[in-house]
Amino acid sequence: MPSKTDIRIIFLYEFKRGTNATITAHNINESFWENLVNSTTVQRWFKKFKEGNESLENKDRGRPTPTVNNDELKNVIEADSRQTRFPSFVADWKDKKARSMDTP
């Protein structure tokens, strides 16, 4: 199976040949016997190439800035384990399930 970079090279090649995005996606999928790409993805890359950006790398999006400090959250939970609701949720679910099995 071709790598992402291999596929992007094909995108650039087809763009330079003047092939449209739909035909490019069809040809790639037909050649590799898979649903490897869709025309929307090819259109996005063709738009990038048309704007003069022929880099084959994705734009670095980065991670969103966390709104919660994980260390502080961990300290709060460790200080009072009743803050976590998951164990009580599981207990409630098991209790409801047991009661539903008792009724015909």
TrEMBL record:
GO terms for molecular function: DNA topoisomerase binding; double-stranded DNA binding; histone H3K36 methyltransferase activity; histone H3K4 methyltransferase activity; single-stranded DNA binding; single-stranded DNA endodeoxyribonuclease activity. One of its GO terms (cellular component) is site of double-strand break. Residues 4-53 form the Mos1 transposase HTH domain. This is HTH_48 domain-containing protein. One of its GO terms (biological process) is DNA integration. PANTHER family: HISTONE-LYSINE N-METHYLTRANSFERASE SETMAR, MARINER MOS1 TRANSPOSASE-LIKE PROTEIN.
